[in-house]
Request: fold
Amino acid sequence: MFYVYGYLNEDGEVYYVGKGKGRRYNHPHHYGVKVPFDGGNIIFFKKNLTEQQSINLEKNLIKFYGRKDIDEGGCLVNRTKGGNGGFSGKMKEETKRKIGDLHRGKIVSDEVRKKISNTLKGKIHSSERIENIRKGMGCGIYKFLSPKGIVVEVDNMTKFCYNENLQQSCMSDVWNEKRKTHKGWKKF
Reply:
């Protein structure tokens, strides 16, 4: 059976949330997270869970508390949003080499890059095609709350972000709840 635990700082505030079984809560390897070995600063949010229940609870608690430097007002030092996978702290040498090659342009040749660029250059989809793409992505109209408190409906994220001088990746993160705001814009 699994459980979800948290580490508390000297003020009794949660600074890390994790899931585990056995003595995972007391394991020294938490990738740079200070483990309170005295046992007094560890709480168990819930015990006797299935693995899926523990994953869901861990994710919900991380979302609730928020992560430092990622979520506005967040207090956790967690590096991921919880659940299985994510950052493992270790990377194989082959993986490092492949990433380096990718960044140096060795995997995608200039010829392939040019073909991709020419294919996409000036491409304008019909409104019907855009709607089908959105349905496939699970979204239709985006609704955001502007910094002035006005609800804005957006049907073309790229055009909207260009017109409002916003970064599309950041607004996508707002929409997908990976961040709370971008330049004062919030998901509605």
Remarks:
- The mean pLDDT is 79.
- Residues 51-65 form the longest helix (15 residues).
- The chain has six helices and seven strands.
